[in-house]
């Protein structure tokens, strides 16, 4: 059971959406590559452990004597496990407690990297009367990550070791453990104080919506199509496409959304868009100047055939 799953910060959400629409500056480009690689690694770990026993949490940022980030926390059988996910690939050599790549990229002592986070987690749990034995591990999730000259460490885990974690998590969640991680999650800080968003000009961006599953651009709707299918197999209806387009444009533009903009992003006709928007969003202005903003009372529940689901940007696909 996951008490909390990944929720992108405002910076990450914007950066992932703007990527591919406009040329990023050098800083944002480097940040995108780092953050995307990290997310993919964490997503892989999530997929491996999501059906196991234990009580789990993905993504926790605490402001406790400074900012500290935790990728995964798992409570099982009296232990609180902290897993710090690393998604590196390629050949590395173990030199002076560091992992050094063939291109001389250095992963500085991975144990020291999370030692501070481990100590803060222990202190935070003590402060809030969460009585668990705490163990922290660095998990090198990528099967293509190879290290020579390394004899192993009890707190460093590689891809081949993950089955051992999966097989060990067998006990079901209990109310005490759920309450403990719920307590921790209440202190989560969505946005980092170290992240600043540089907003790129909306008018210069590539139009279109991205697949909720694979994040690749979807083609536009043609004629009377009721839904389109992404190359990854994800089906997107007109209703969902309109909601995705609204969220995308509002995020990129940082302003209200016009019907014509949703037409440009989806290829869906104005009449259909206006019908969906009028039911789910608040409007401002009149006639030609009419635009839409998020409604505080909108539930965004979409009904298709006999299925009912709530739309949101899908970062985790169960």
Automatic annotation (TrEMBL):
<dbReference type="InterPro" id="IPR011528">
    <property type="entry name" value="NERD"/>
</dbReference>
<dbReference type="Pfam" id="PF08378">
    <property type="entry name" value="NERD"/>
</dbReference>
<protein>
    <submittedName>
        <fullName>Nuclease-related domain-containing protein</fullName>
    </submittedName>
</protein>
<feature type="domain" description="NERD">
    <location>
        <begin position="37"/>
        <end position="141"/>
    </location>
</feature>
């Amino acid at each position: 059971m996951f008490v909390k799953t990944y929720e992108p910060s405002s910076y990450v959400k914007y950066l992932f959406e703007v990527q591919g629409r406009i040329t990023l500056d050098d800083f944002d480009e480097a940040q995108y590559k780092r953050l995307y690689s990290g997310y993919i690694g964490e997503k892989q770990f999530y997929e491996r452990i999501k059906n196991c026993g234990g009580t789990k949490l993905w993504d926790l940022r605490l402001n406790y004597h400074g900012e500290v980030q935790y990728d995964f926390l798992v409570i099982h059988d009296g232990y609180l496990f902290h897993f710090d996910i690393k998604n590196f690939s390629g050949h590395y050599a173990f030199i002076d407690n560091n992992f050094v790549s063939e291109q001389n990229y250095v992963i500085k002592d991975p144990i020291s990297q999370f030692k501070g986070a481990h100590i803060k987690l222990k202190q935070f749990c003590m402060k809030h009367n969460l009585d668990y034995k705490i163990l922290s591990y660095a998990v090198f999730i990528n099967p293509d990550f190879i290290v020579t000259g390394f004899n192993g460490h009890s707190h460093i885990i590689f891809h081949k070791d993950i089955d051992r974690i999966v097989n060990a998590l067998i006990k079901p969640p209990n109310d005490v453990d759920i309450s403990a991680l719920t307590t921790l999650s209440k202190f989560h800080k969505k946005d980092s104080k170290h992240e600043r968003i540089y907003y790129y000009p909306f008018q210069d961006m590539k139009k279109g919506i991205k697949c909720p599953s694979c994040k690749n651009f979807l083609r536009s709707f043609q004629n009377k199509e009721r839904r389109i299918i992404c190359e990854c197999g994800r089906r997107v209806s007109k209703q969902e496409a309109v909601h995705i387009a609204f969220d995308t444009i509002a995020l990129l533009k940082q302003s209200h959304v016009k019907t014509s903009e949703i037409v440009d992003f989806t290829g869906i006709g104005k009449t259909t868009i206006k019908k969906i928007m009028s039911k789910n969003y608040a409007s401002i202005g009149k006639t030609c100047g009419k635009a839409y903003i998020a409604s505080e009372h909108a539930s965004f529940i979409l009904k298709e055939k006999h299925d009912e689901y709530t739309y949101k940007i899908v970062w985790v696909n169960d």
